Amino acid sequence: MGFLLAIVTALFFPGIILRVKSIASGRKGPGILQPWKNILLLLRKGSVFSTTTSFIFRMAPAIYLSTVICALMLLPFPGMPSYFGFDGDFVLFAYLLALGKFLFILGALDTGSSFEGMGANREALYSMLVEPAFFILFGTLALLTGHTSMQQIFESFQFTGHNSFIIGFIAVYLLVQIAMIENSRMPVDDPKTHLELTMIHEVMILDHSGFDLALVQIGTALKFAMYGLLIANFLVPVDAGQILVNGEKWLMTGEKGMMNHSGAGWMMVLQVGVYFLVQVVFAALIGLMESFRARKKLIRNPQFIVTLSSIALVAFILVLLITFKMIG
Amino acid sequence: MKDNRYIELFSNPGKVLLDDIPVLNYDDFAAFLDSLMGEEGTHCVAYFVVPLPDKYKFICCMAADENHAILLCSHEQPLDPALSLQALTARHFQFHVFEREIHENFGIGFHGHPWLKPIRFPFDRADQSKGMNDYPFYSIDGDELHEVGVGPIHAGIIEPGHFRFICHGELVLHLEIHLGYQHRGVERLFVERPGTLKQSVLAESIAGDTAVGHALAYAGLIDSLAGYDVPEQLAAERIIALELERIAMHIGDTAALCTDIAYQFGQVVNEALRTVIINTTQLWCGNRFGKGLIRHGGTNYPLTDDISSQVLKNLDDVQARYLQVTDRIFSLPSVLGRFEGTGKVTTMQASLIGAVGMAAKSSGMYRDIRWSHPFSAYAGQLYEPVMLEKGDVWSRAMLRKLEVEKSMAVIRELIREFTIDDLRFTIEGAPQLKIENRKSKMVSKPAYDPPLAPSSLAISMVEGWRGEICHVAMTDSAGHIIHYKAKDPSFHNWMALALAVRNQEISDFPLCNKSFNLSYCGNDL
Fold first, then answer.
1. Domain residue ranges in chain B
2. Inter-chain residue contact B505 with A298, CB threshold 8 Å
3. Which of B146, B265, B507 sits opposite A292 (nearest CB)?
4. Closest chain A residue by Cα to residue B258
5. Strands B42-51 vs B55-64: parallel, antiparallel or unpaired
6. Which of A27, A114, A295 is facing B149, going by the closest CB pair?
7. N or C: which end of chain B has fewer CB within 10 A?
């Protein structure tokens, strides 16, 4: 379910970002599906390979895309299981993405271009720095909920009190920032620059062309949808009972039992609705963030990324305090 | 006692008989330059060789900013292929680029010159055995160092030029700038293709972004050689065109700086504003870059009242919006984080390399031709240049903002002066009570191919938006141009860029480059 929805979202996500940026700059902007029209165009084309590259370069885009798809299959949708959920699956999730990135970096180094070497170097550094933030965040959630599979974590993590609101807010903030870094977006990287020397991710795909380039772009679109799904997992309610408890006033009037009885299909519609709302807001947020601020100086990026880990650490300590209190 | 080692010109453009330029022997010449360079604000604007049938004639034009004068002197050397002179660069670094050019074109050696690197690789260079593609780049050995070569083909709409970085990780230790890919033989064409209309068009094409600046320098030369007395009205119109070009380029550069730091809002607003300005120029002369607007001896596009009122209207509109958006840009922390302290050129460095124009003014040097050698409508009024001291990207961006405001004030003042001028004419008892369409009466159409003063040298300097443009022409006894030198400010300032990126991150290079926005073709000629 989550997998299918993420794929649907991926169709619109890059288009929404583009459109928001266009509107913010006073232009009309291309249609929402334009990025995918470009991808379809690329899929019909052949690839050109530099003579200095080896099989690694040719392998990289396919593996990159497949790791993203596998990682996506690990993600649950609220109230529904993922394809392969198991205890500790978030570790696999993170390292599947890392594997894709690793091959991608190798592919970039394989071209022997000094630009791509620099880009690969920067990408490796930032991925390395952002990793602790991701793990501390999931460690925190595991500690809070007592589960280690993503599905169970999200099922038992609910906005049921002030504490969870704080943790939830921090988690969503961190995931948005991690998504921006992992997808090489604005404060850290500039996806639309033409200046090779300042690029991080873009410079690594300079040598990919045609079909391979399309695979990379599909991977990028999916990755966005994937982080959107991850964030949605926090925000989309799991069942109607939870909504009642949380005081959605327009539902309060109904009987709990009645709601459960008549609302299973209803609930699904609501969940999917909230899910899409979250994704659209996420995409629009990225578009706006990229319109009204300048990119960071490259040398300040590591500092910024490490800050995310410390924020995650704050959440971790907070949860430690909370749980101790509960025990005490 | 009058110093007879040089001849002084107090007008810009200025003209002098060739025989009046004192010829010194090389030692006296060097000693004279030593004495000049000791003074504040004296810099070399042109130093070139004219190959005569029996000798090389070296002519040096120095600008003395404080005295508002141009000093000319020369020395002569035999046509000896093994000729080698003591390099002036060893004592005055700003000569490095002139001596490199002379070395490249005539094979004249300069001992004591640190690096006779070719400036461009023209097909008519002296040493034909070396080409552009087998040029040995400067290199540093080291296990931890790596070289990054960028160009000559770049992404986007950047002109061709090669940059070779020697980096330690992300840090740039050295940048070598390698140009010449656009060498078209401009100076030669001036000599070989007579006809001042052709030459006017050629001057406009020296650097596409400074069409008005170079055309104005050329027009000044021909007006001076032909003895044409430029009417005040025409002088004012030329300056209005020049300042419009400056405004358009500065606003365009502000947009480009925003692009490079990925600040989309600043980019799109400034791009839209630049369009308003270049469309104003188009309304005036039919070309957005002012091509065809500046001609010697008159104009094809007089500034009518309709156009000048439209200019004023557009300026008001652009100024209000430009000030708003620059306020935003210069107060946004993420922008300041990129601009401040990036790509610093110290006053010392700028003065050593003889930086001109914006590169000099943003590094604490008071160097502006509009002030030091006022030309056209600037003659007779004191223009106060804008100066900033930090020498970083922020200064160069801020300088643009301040100059835009200043140029707008200049245009308004000039347009206003005309209407008041009309009034004065009637009050002071001129025969006409009201001058209908005064402009077309005062300013004639350009008359091409005027007879030029024989055996003369004329020099014309213009402060283009980038800085000092200098054109020099020499005529023979029949009044034909036999030698032409055109110099774009980029000729000096590329060195400033190479210095600015030292010990900076390599990822800041594009931003530094854009903050100077130097001309590749202006250097390559």
1. 7-97
2. yes
3. B265
4. A294
5. antiparallel
6. A114
7. N
